[in-house]
């Protein structure tokens, strides 16, 4: 009996040790490599796109830079891996990337069947439709018999089918492998309507031959909570990604910006002190330095700053905050407290 208990104890200890090692695997790999490998969308204006010199910009791109800043105190230690919608999850599962930040919708099947986790939602979105003004359509419910361009391997195909079936409308699917192929086909007149997340509609419209010839219809037909994705069972890494988002939200709520963060280090507000690391050891709890959030804000800024310059009023897209406003302003973005 004693030998059996010893054997069980040794087995449990080994299991705990293995779990602990696994839980730190991604952070250790990133530190040893010296760069964060981030899966990104190479063609979605406002969220992820490189210029001719290979400089990446976008809301999702800045989220990757924020993680890099938290780890390395440098937002530029990121290697962006361009991925199609079809290949994005496989690249994460195989270890080709450390985190996927590519306008990916959190769904039950992805959360439970792919061995992946969605630690945070950095953009609340919904699927919509774009049509030419000459089509004379003011509502998606007037699209009966229309041909609709959509991208393969995305949630848009299922949402499209659900919407037309629920409204007893007939339609024809014209599907393509990539977002670029899909929109080019629509712009060339190969289909009557183009459907994707509303954020994508505004981004893609900028690429049209004549952007003013197209309108986004008012209907939003689905919930598309978009966010970063990590591999399942690496709890520490998931915490780092999750709290990167919460740090940017809390900074906005507390009025901490890229410009004033150094001044805010002198604040007596206990929430600010905990967030910026002048009180407590909250960074150490996730394997980082205690000034992890200061680093994020200093190099990237708060969530509102990132939103406005990439997709908001300071950008070409001019998207309203809407659901992505802070909870204190009627939105859904809510940073959990650092305490």
UniProtKB/TrEMBL annotation:
Record bears the keyword Ubl conjugation: no
Keywords (A to Z) from UniProt: Signal, Transport
Record keyword Transport present: yes
UniProt GO BP: amino acid transport
Signal peptide, first to last residue: 1-20
Record Gene3D superfamilies: Periplasmic binding protein-like II
Entries under CDD domains matching the protein: PBP2_BztA
InterPro entries tied to this protein: Bact_solute-bind_prot3, Solute-binding_3/MltF_N
Solute-binding protein family 3/N-terminal domain location: 35-264
Family statement: Belongs to the bacterial solute-binding protein 3 family.
PANTHER family recorded: AMINO ACID ABC TRANSPORTER PERMEASE (PTHR30085), AMINO-ACID ABC TRANSPORTER-BINDING PROTEIN YHDW-RELATED (PTHR30085:SF7)
Name the record gives this protein: Amino acid ABC transporter substrate-binding protein
Organism this protein belongs to: Salinarimonas soli
């Amino acid at each position: 009996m004693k030998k059996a208990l010893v054997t069980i104890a040794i087995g449990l200890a080994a299991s705990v040790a293995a779990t602990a090692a696994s839980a730190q695997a991604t952070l250790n790999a990133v530190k040893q490599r010296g760069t964060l490998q981030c899966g990104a969308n190479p063609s979605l204006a406002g969220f992820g796109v490189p210029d001719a010199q290979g400089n990446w910009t976008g809301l999702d791109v800045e989220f990757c830079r924020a993680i890099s800043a938290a780890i390395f105190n440098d937002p530029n230690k990121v290697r962006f891996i361009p991925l199609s919608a079809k290949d994005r999850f496989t690249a994460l599962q195989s270890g080709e990337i450390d985190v996927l930040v590519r306008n990916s919708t959190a769904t039950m099947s992805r959360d439970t069947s792919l061995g992946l986790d969605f630690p945070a939602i950095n953009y609340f979105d919904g699927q919509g439709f774009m049509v030419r003004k000459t089509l004379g359509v003011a509502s998606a419910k007037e699209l009966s018999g229309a041909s609709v361009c959509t991208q393969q391997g995305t949630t848009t195909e299922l949402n499209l089918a659900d919407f037309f079936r629920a409204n007893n409308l007939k339609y024809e699917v014209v599907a393509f492998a990539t977002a670029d192929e899909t929109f080019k086909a629509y712009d060339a007149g190969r289909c009557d309507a183009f459907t994707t997340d509303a954020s994508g509609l505004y981004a893609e419209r900028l690429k049209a031959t004549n952007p003013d010839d197209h309108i986004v219809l008012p209907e939003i037909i689905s919930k598309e909570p978009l966010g970063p994705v990590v591999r399942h069972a690496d709890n520490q890494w998931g915490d780092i990604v999750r709290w990167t988002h919460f740090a940017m939200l809390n900074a906005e709520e507390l009025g901490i910006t890229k410009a004033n963060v150094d001044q805010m280090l002198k604040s007596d507000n206990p929430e600010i002190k905990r967030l910026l690391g002048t009180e407590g050891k909250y960074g150490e709890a996730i394997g980082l330095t205690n000034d992890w959030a200061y680093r994020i804000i200093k190099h990237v800024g708060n969530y509102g700053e990132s939103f406005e310059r990439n997709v908001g009023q300071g950008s070409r897209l001019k998207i309203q905050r809407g659901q992505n406003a802070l909870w204190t302003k009627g939105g859904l973005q809510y940073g959990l407290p650092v305490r």
